[in-house]
Target: Hemoglobin
Amino acid sequence: ATPATFFEAVGGEPTFRRLVEVFYSGISDDPLLRPMYPEADLGPATERMTLFLMQYWGGPNTYSAQRGHPRLRMRHAPFRIGVAERDAWLRHMRHAVDSLGLPADQHAMLWDYLERAAHFMVNAPE
Ligand code: HEM
Model:
């Protein structure tokens, strides 16, 4: 049967877990971005991002059950996100999306969303 959601079409939860694992392994040694994240452990941040993306693409609504409405711009307000931070974030995310080896149409859909969302999150333009 044809998958009902993009979440299912790309392979469901394991695909999103892999994506966010690769992304956060990049964040973990990024000198610009790592200091913005909780010092001790990136595990909880990894879980929040994974659940958010699963929900966004039509998977289970666990993110909102745990965290409420995403309100992502508001949740990023405590962090200074300029063009340099955005571009560093996108570099790690691009590497993570590429690592999935998705078919071109799915790759483009996922990447276009992430790129647009990252531009929208900038709150400290130069
Ligand atoms: C949380 C940085 C863009 C989704 C966070 C946190 C930081 C951060 C420092 C707190 C970590 C934590 O959860 O403890 C950035 C930077 C971005 C960016 C520098 C550059 C543009 C994005 C984008 C998305 C996103 C584009 C979505 C597509 C999230 C989510 C959380 C989060 C879901 C957890 C929110 C919560 O439930 O508290 N981000 N972020 N971020 N970010 Fe970003």
In short: The helical segments are 6-9, 13-27, 43-56, 62-67, 72-76, 83-99, 104-121. DSSP finds seven helices and no strands in the chain. The pocket of protoporphyrin IX containing FE is lined by residues 33, 36-38, 45, 48-49, 52, 67, 72, 75-76, 79, 81, 85-86, 89, 114, 117-118, 121 (CB under 6 Å).
